[in-house]
Specification:
single chain; seven-stranded mixed β-sheet; six-stranded mixed beta barrel; 31 helices; 41 strands; 29% helix; 22% strand
């Protein structure tokens, strides 16, 4: 009976119904009302259920919550870097620089972002044969059958690959040749380095890119060489900044260029000239230095005199055609430049235009029986005049195989798709620089049914080793380890990089003499005097996109360009004066975005590219235009969001400068996704800058004046004005500060991607960026300054540029904390401004009260939301997330935390080991990844720490310090070196 009664109560009893029938007491009413309210509240607070499967038997090499690091080498068709890969529970989550490597030891935005490509849901998951999903066994049978037939026909078997300087792979190709003798390896880089390598071979006798070390140079003159960008195979920012410290011997940097680059932005003196005028100037300087011939260009005369005066402390860099490279190399040899490392060359780039042209001829003659394309996309990246022909001829080849990670324009034409693993899933090695070898090792098990192309070669040529790992290990143990500074293959794996100690110096092969023929050739040479009415087009690479290999990477698409501050697009850069003549404009729209006119690009009366948006760029040389490589691909889901244009269509003869280009205005209007709409500081003291002479010869009060506030007691510094209790500042334990040296910051954006990767910052897409709703926790503001005071037009013609990284300043007297109605933002005892996401109700009072505008509001749930179909919207993409940092939900504020998870981890380790934390142990994601070490993080309560010294430096200042918020982020003012009288008035 009791059971029935109980059933009746739960099945039929309706307290709400009885309540309205008057059958309940006041006590019952309050009881049920309280229960109902509480249950709804509890339900609303519940997070999503996540079903986890624990380890039954824990792997020996994995401890939950403890990261593992692996030394490896990142390499693709454009980038290479020695890296440390951070893994958690068996999955890579972050890429950091391998400081034990002497070369390639910085991680650019692209190198770090390659991590996200591992978790791309659009990767090829299985092999395909004739468009249908297949098996590796079927693929092997098909390819071997065709290879055996081809070996009898004596037709070429071509391997077309990007520069892949792998010692073991080259040896493997030779072994493959023993089986199939008509095999050839052809290097094809979408952006060719062949002009530089040809000039090096001609000048030095070595087909490698010369190594320049700028640390000891006192003068650098660059002729259109973006050496802080992608001019050299290795980024030169690290050695550049080492000699940019403000002292009597501080390097002076003169940049002559057509497009505005980050190298030009960092120069002391920048001259804006179109490419033909730059080459003419370089030739006149050559003739002055070698033959004493007086230049017609006044600036060329001044620069030549300065180079002669500085002698071996000078270095000349140039970009463009082979002659430009050769002229610069010869000048460096003549002045015996200390920067030119005579016995060291980069071998990471192997471009050879002549070999590729021969390949095209054989393709046309149908001499090729088998074509194996390794991870390049020539149908997309070849010029318009070649691409269509190649399409037609590829279809006639009996055997076509593509080793690729993803579907692309070339794959559509290939018989066999043999999916290869990501570099983080692969074994391998590289020989990137003289006497240095690096290793590639997998940091995760292959996610899909992929196979390295080296493994395929071993199977197809019946080599005795079972797999590429065995082949690689055997090769190293026989040919590399005995000659190196390590004793075993495993030790080499641990370090990731080895040096060859038992070697003959490369300098023995170098051509030290300067040929009289060369002097006569360039001594008599005259640059064509005819004036082109049409434009000169200068192709360039963005720090985000490079050659376009990582086109489908949302981190890179949303990374703002350091100069234009735009995302998700490429565009035609044009000078203000040329745009005015043609009626081309950019204008701000009501929704906060920038609009612009579009044009068609025409050469020889033929339209090459249609509807390119125009971006009016201050500092662009009159008569020149610029266009970035890497955009305009039509494969992948991001291609639907990006309105980019394929610059390779105009890349004729692999020249980065194309002459006689016309542009025609069209009716289309383009909307840019731009994160910065203001271009100057409007007279505010945000970025402090001075000249080296003023810095060295005047007291701090002149060049780093303290900002004061007018009070009833007169002008007082903010230190003497406060409504706060001074005793609340913690002098015990840790107190974290961040310092940013504006002299060292080059604006490369590596810190932004590092922050994204470490802190699970979401990608919001182009439409949200257009509404100024970016989610970057760290931004790098770019400001234009006039060379002369009160001259606005000078900003368009020849501006100075300064970059300023901005993140949460973690103010001790934070204005955001006092206005939060729910106490969601508060101040920690270690100096960090804290966010309690569960408390935040999204009033945005804190964002309104923040003078630095560094807080971001989650307008949507960016995870598990089809409207934001990026990595946080699929199971595979979520594997990149850092488990130490929560994924924020809709309606909360978020911002920089000074990587609190990292600081607490370090403190925890020190406690366990019963010791104090060492100064260099404290790092944020941005400070680790900064290639120039412009960002320093540490504990100011440790008076011996580097951060304490930075804070006390006379160049140090606080941003908007006069408002009294006492930020824990400081800046060191920028200093330019214009002290040489010979070039003070250079125009």
């Amino acid at each position: 009976m009791k059971l029935n009664k109980k059933e009746k109560i739960f099945d039929n009893y309706n307290p709400i119904k009885d309540l309205f029938k008057g059958e309940t007491s006041r006590r019952d009413f309050l009881k049920w009302l309280g229960f109902g309210t509480a249950s709804v509240t509890l339900a609303a607070c519940k997070g999503p259920v996540i079903k986890s499967i624990p380890y039954v038997v824990k792997p020996d090499n994995i401890t939950p919550g403890i990261p593992n690091y692996y030394a490896s080498t990142m390499i693709d068709s454009f980038d290479i870097g020695s890296v440390l890969v951070k893994t958690r529970e068996g999955r890579p989550i972050k890429i950091e620089p391998n400081s034990s490597s002497e070369y390639f030891n910085t991680t650019s935005a692209r190198i770090q972002s390659s991590l996200l490509s591992l978790y791309d849901e659009e990767r090829l998951r299985n092999p395909f044969l004739k468009g249908k999903q297949s098996s590796w066994k079927e693929i092997d049978n098909y390819v071997i059958q065709h290879l055996k037939y081809l070996s009898k026909t004596k037709k070429y078997i071509i391997f077309l690959s990007y520069s892949f300087p792998s010692f073991s792979t080259k040896k493997l190709i030779q072994d493959f040749k023993k089986k199939y003798s008509y095999t050839k390896w052809i290097t094809y880089d979408p952006i060719s380095y062949s002009k530089a390598l040809d000039a090096s071979e001609e000048t030095f006798g070595v087909r490698g890119f010369p190594v320049f070390d700028l640390e000891k140079s006192e003068l650098i003159v660059s002729f259109d060489a973006d050496f802080l960008g992608d001019w050299s195979p290795e980024n030169m920012a690290k050695s550049y900044v080492l000699n940019r410290r403000p002292n009597k011997n501080m390097m002076q940097h003169i940049q002559i260029e057509s497009n505005m680059t980050i190298t030009g932005a960092n120069a002391d003196i920048r001259l804006s000239k179109k490419p033909s005028d730059i080459k003419k100037m370089l030739l006149e300087i050559f003739q002055k230095i070698f033959l004493g011939k007086k230049p017609k260009d006044e600036n060329a005369e001044k620069i030549a005199l300065l180079i002669n005066k500085m002698g071996s402390k000078s270095v000349i860099l140039a970009d463009g055609d082979e002659e430009s490279y050769e002229l610069s190399f010869l000048i460096n040899k003549k002045i015996n430049s200390h920067a030119l490392q005579r016995n060291k060359f980069f071998f990471s780039k192997e471009s050879n235009d002549n070999e590729f042209i021969n390949f095209l001829k054989n393709l046309e003659k149908e001499n090729i029986g088998g074509l194996f394309i390794h991870n390049v996309n020539p149908i997309y990246s070849l010029p318009l005049s070649i691409s269509e022909k190649v399409k037609k001829f590829i279809k006639k080849i009996p055997l076509t195989v593509s080793f690729s990670m993803k579907k692309d324009e070339t794959n559509e034409m290939m018989d066999v798709l043999a999916p290869i693993p990501h570099w983080l899933e692969s074994w391998g090695d590289t020989y990137p620089v003289t006497n240095v070898h690096t290793l590639i090792q997998p940091t995760i098990q292959p996610i899909f049914s992929t196979r390295q192309f080296q493994d395929s070669l071993i199977i197809w040529s019946e080599i005795k080793e079972k797999n590429y790992y065995e082949y690689l290990k055997k090769t190293w143990e026989k040919d590399i380890v005995p000659k190196s500074n390590v004793s075993s293959f495993n030790e080499a794996l641990f370090h990731g990089v080895v040096k060859i100690t038992n070697h003959k110096p490369v300098s023995g092969n170098l051509n030290f003499s300067i040929s009289n023929k060369k002097i006569k050739k360039y001594g008599k040479k005259i640059v064509d005097k005819k004036v082109e009415k049409n434009f000169e087009l200068r192709f360039y690479t963005k720090i985000s996109m490079g050659d376009g290999h990582q086109y489908n990477n949302p981190w890179l698409q949303e990374l703002p360009d350091p100069i234009t501050r735009t995302t998700w697009d490429n565009y035609l850069t044009i000078s203000y004066f040329d745009a005015n003549k043609m009626g081309l404009k950019n204008w701000n729209s009501g929704d906060g975005s920038i609009n612009g006119n579009c044009v068609d690009l025409i050469k020889n009366n033929k339209t090459i590219i249609q509807n390119i948006p125009v971006f009016i760029q201050p500092g662009q040389a009159v008569g020149s235009i610029g266009l970035a490589f890497g955009y305009g691909q039509n494969q992948g889901k991001l291609s639907k969001l990006v309105n980019g244009k394929n610059a390779y269509r105009g890349y004729e003869n692999f020249f980065i400068v194309q002459n006689n280009i016309q542009i025609k205005k069209v009716d289309e209007i383009h909307k840019f996704a731009c994160v910065q709409l203001h271009h100057t500081t409007v007279g505010r003291s945000l970025v402090k800058e001075t000249d080296l002479d003023i810095f060295l010869n005047n007291p701090k009060e002149i060049w780093n004046e303290e900002e004061k506030v007018l009070t009833h007691k007169g002008m007082l510094s903010q230190e003497k004005i406060s409504i706060w209790d001074q005793n609340h500042e913690n002098k015990n334990g840790h107190h974290f500060n961040l310092s940013i040296d504006l002299n060292a910051c080059i604006g490369c954006g590596a810190c932004i991607i590092a922050c994204h990767s470490e802190n699970n910052v979401p990608v919001v897409g182009k439409k949200e960026i257009e509404k100024s709703r970016d989610m970057h926790w760290l931004r790098i503001d770019r400001y234009y300054f006039s060379q002369e005071e009160n001259n606005e037009k000078d900003i368009y013609k020849s501006p100075k540029i300064t970059f300023q990284p901005i993140m949460c300043q973690h103010c001790d007297h934070a204005p955001c904390e006092t206005v939060c109605p729910v106490g969601a933002t508060s101040h920690g005892t270690q100096g960090q401004n804290m966010m309690i996401y569960n408390r935040c109700v999204g009033t945005r009072y804190c964002a309104n009260n923040c003078p630095y505008k560094v807080r971001r509001f989650n307008w949507f749930n960016y995870a598990n939301n089809q409207k934001f179909d990026f990595n946080m919207n699929n199971t595979l993409g979520k594997m990149v997330l850092n488990p130490d940092v929560v994924v924020r939900s809709r309606g909360v504020m978020e911002k920089c935390s000074l990587c609190i998870q990292r600081t607490q981890h370090v403190i925890g380790i020190a406690k366990k080991e019963n010791r104090k934390v060492k100064d260099k142990e404290f790092e944020t994601a941005c400070s680790i990844s900064c290639p120039t070490k412009a960002i320093t993080f540490g504990d100011i309560n440790d008076t011996t720490s580097l951060i304490s010294k930075k804070i006390k430096n006379s160049r140090s200042y606080k941003l908007l310090d006069f408002i009294g918020v006492r930020p824990n982020v400081s800046y060191q003012l920028k200093i330019r070196n214009k002290k040489k009288n010979e070039i003070e008035k250079m125009k």
